[in-house]
Amino acid sequence: MTRFSKWRRRVGAATLIACLHAGAAGANVPEATRILDARDHAELAAGISEGGVVRVALIGDRIARVVRAPGGWSVEHDADAGDIYLRPPAENAAPEGPVALFVGSERGYTYRLTLEPAVGGPAQILIRNAAADAVADFARRERGGGRIAALAPLIRAAANGVPPAGYAIGPPVDCCGAEGVSVLEVWRGPRFEAWVLLVGGDGPGDALSLAEGLGPDIAAAWIADAAGEPSAEGRAMSRLAVAVRETRAE
Question: Quick one: 99 exposed, middle or buried, by C-beta within 10 A (0-12, 13-18, 19+)?
């Protein structure tokens, strides 16, 4: 674990909160679909159709692995599409309670699902992670979709304070000209450089504004959600952020 753990503890606690949204689906989402808004390590619960195959997929990401206890509903992982399909047990099988499983995404996020079979439940479960979408958007905007697989795990590692192999952590440097933003530490690797940042209440409010404020060479950016109440003076709380720039092209 690197320094500045108090900021990372705050982020870590926030990532355990799941925001479930049964919500108003867009015109391109079937009625028999439920969308769950989630963060990394979220514990999600939803009803599913008890009488047929159920598809579980990630919006803007792909399921890379799935772990489920044996017995009951069977799980089929379509590795090419990045989806999983749940099939109910045979008609003569003993009744079973909720289907519990863990899924890990291609971009490094993990979710725990508890799915309760019910009459009239949805046949599709879609999981939407705003942080994964933000990383994907910046990667496409600056470097193309092929960078996503490299950028997302690096941002996640920097936010959690766990350096990946090949990265050396250095002291703060004067590499940030954005208002309200200070550098906590710099991670230097063979291809990318990650800046671990502290964004004050007067700094950028979202990842897009942060990236634009840091300059055109930023390949991806992430900023933690606001946590807790404003300070006694009425100012917004400071937040952890990560920005990545490419130091060596492929």
Answer: buried
